[in-house]
Design goal:
The structure is a homodimer of 413-residue chains. With 413 residues, chain A is an alpha/beta fold. Chain A is 36% helix and 25% strand. Chain A is built from 16 helices and 16 strands.
């Protein structure tokens, strides 16, 4: 039986299906075509075989890619886009030599964003999020995780997640909200992190669950924020409450957060700038995705994460932007892919797989996103180039031509 | 007498005149206006004083900046945009662990570009250059230096400079062509660099001068390319022939190229990744501009250039992209400004001055470009932000709203 299709992209010079075959699994097809029905990929193959396998109906939309590269849309699995104001003032202070302590003393850091997020109107929060989602779309990003975590109280955290849900319904991309009440200890609980964890577990998590506004929780396990013990306790309770888990681990110090994540069965452990050799092997042997955020290393002038070591150890490695107003105001997945190649030892193919397939796995979407194979969502990018290696090679200005979400054209240059 | 003006930009939230006053000389005016006549800046000041000083005629075009930031356009004083083909294949080989020698053995490197540039049609060379100039414009770059140097023979070098001249007449930006026949030793002169230098001095330089198609010459002083002695000889002869001088110095090895540049009175010495402490002080005490290209360090995973040390020593430091198909396929000045801040120790203000005022000085245009003061060309960018510190803070996606060259709107988002 031939396949019915309502949209076909023909004359694709290079189609990266990411089907697991070929170098690093990119599943490269040349002179290819891609057929879509009801927003899902229904067939990919050689352009000349299209009519053999697919029924082109009178109303099937047929578009030529003109010999261009087509890839799955990027899956940005770690962002903090719910904030009240940007922090370019702190960026400039840091550039002028101010220390973290000096910036904090001047009212800076995460708690600065908390103050400005609590006082921001819903309209401002929504506008900030939409503005950057729109930029992300123009950079080829079709799925975006969106963390709360600049509220740190019941009202603001719920408000941010509700806004994320509202925005999700109004943008072309797929948005996955994550509850990150455990981003920092708020002023109301200063010096009492355990009590704040209790509060989250007993007061906030249940409300988030009840409203069904986040599938994941996330926590910042770091010296001066939450200890590995507090992290483990929060993750265990969240698991019992039915949440999937994420963690900010081993970013500035090797506190062993990765081991906590693996033990708790977290879907991903993120940052890992300071991960130990031991924990590289631990995460490689686990199902937890190692999510690297090289833009943050660049932004903060820290050593880049050990991508090559994690890949060589066999870890599933995702790449994401960490877009946030403090430590990485970067909404470009193409730049992140370049940084992975130029600074973290990825091959071009590994970087593209990490930014698509593994990003999807880091969100539990490995059956729906990140690949262009039968049954997956038809989220893809037509690039203004004929060689996929150009994607990270062209530094600073991505060659995105057209972006499709679930088979619909949602952006073009 | 009041000032006549044919174009006025009003309601500028922050105008960076770069007049030498204030922090690092950015000359910040708030609630400002900018008046233009015949493509030149004729007045800047407080918006409320506009009518006091300027005559607004019936046909004066009046535009509101809506409270946005306005800066001079970027001056990208070091690029190689005249090439026949891109080299993403070598980029991918390097990412997969190939050494420089392995890439060269596979036909890679500058000589690969030479082969592909010699065989390229004029239409292809022109199209490549125009394509990237157009991207540069969308990134706020209004003046671009353009080197030849992928021809390495009389015919191709002249052809490339002629194309640069033709393109210069067809794009909105100001283009400054530079003759870089001494980019590498061509295969015809393999092992005979001194004879190639003789050839350039006696055969090619005079023709370039005669045709008036380049004001500067440039030479790659590097281990395995041209020695400091060969460089000094070429620069001395070029000076005698009436050229201004540029040099690729101390990029991979500290060969002392900077000292050669200073002694020869070069307008700029570029790269300087490996400059010695001694030569940092030497260039700081000279009139030679130190041009840094941090995109290349990022692209090649080399240590970033010692920006802070050069600034502290008192050097005039310019920032540029080094856009080229091999070692830095980056056409984004905003990214370079970010790298200067995040990786090279610049303050935000210093980075912006280096990318405008000092870029102009590196091209001998310090009386015409890089500032928005009376008599200077009205090349400026209206940014989609209200705080100039956002320019480097927003990593990967520049907030360019509108670009003007000599008072004419030539790009808008």
């Amino acid at each position: 039986m031939r396949i019915r299709t309502d949209f076909v992209l023909r004359d694709i010079g290079q189609l990266l299906t990411m089907d697991g075959n070929g170098s690093a699994g990119i599943g490269l097809l040349t002179h290819a075509a891609l057929a879509v029905s009801d927003g899902k990929v229904v067939w990919t193959g050689s352009d000349k075989d299209l009519e053999t396998y697919c029924t082109l109906q009178s109303d099937t939309e047929i578009v030529s890619a003109g010999g261009s590269v087509v890839t799955p849309g990027f899956v940005d699995s770690h962002t903090h886009p719910l904030f009240g104001a940007t922090r370019q003032d702190e960026f400039a202070m840091r550039a002028a030599g101010a220390t973290y302590q000096e910036i904090a003393a001047a009212g800076g850091g995460i708690l600065n964003s908390v103050k400005r997020t609590r006082s921001a109107s819903a309209a401002v929060l929504e506008e900030n999020m939409k503005h950057h989602l729109s930029i992300m779309l123009s950079n080829g990003t079709t799925t975006v995780e969106a963390k709360s975590g600049y509220g740190l109280d019941l009202i603001t955290e719920l408000r941010c997640l509700e806004i994320a849900g509202k925005v999700a319904g109004e943008v072309p991309q797929t948005i996955i909200p994550t509850f990150m009440g455990a981003h920092e200890v708020p002023v109301e609980f200063k010096g009492r992190p355990d009590e704040y964890i209790d509060y989250l577990i007993s007061e906030v998590n249940p409300r988030v669950k009840e409203q069904g506004i986040a599938e994941f929780v996330d926590i910042f396990c770091e010296k001066g924020v939450f200890t590995p013990e507090q992290t483990a306790r929060y993750l265990a309770a969240s698991t019992d409450q039915g949440f999937a888990l994420k963690i900010h681990a081993d970013e500035f110090y090797d506190t062993g957060g990765t081991a906590v994540a693996v033990k708790a069965g977290a879907t991903s452990a993120d940052h890992l700038l300071s991960i130990s050799e031991e924990n590289i092997h631990l995460i490689a042997e686990s199902k937890t995705v190692a999510t690297l955020l090289p833009g943050t290393a660049l932004f903060l002038n820290k050593p880049f994460p050990p991508g090559r070591k994690l890949l060589d150890a066999g870890a599933s490695v995702a790449l994401a932007t960490d877009f946030n107003p403090g430590s990485c105001f970067c909404d470009s997945m193409p730049l992140v892919v370049n940084l992975a190649v130029c600074q973290c030892g990825f091959t071009v193919e590994e970087a593209l797989v990490s930014a698509t397939v593994n990003g999807a796995a880091a969100l539990g979407l490995e059956k729906h996103k990140g690949r262009l194979v039968k049954g997956f969502d038809a989220d893809f990018v037509v690039w203004n180039c004929a060689d996929f290696r150009t994607i990270p090679y062209h530094l600073g200005n991505p060659d995105v031509a057209v972006v499709y979400c679930t088979g619909l054209k949602v952006y073009s240059t």
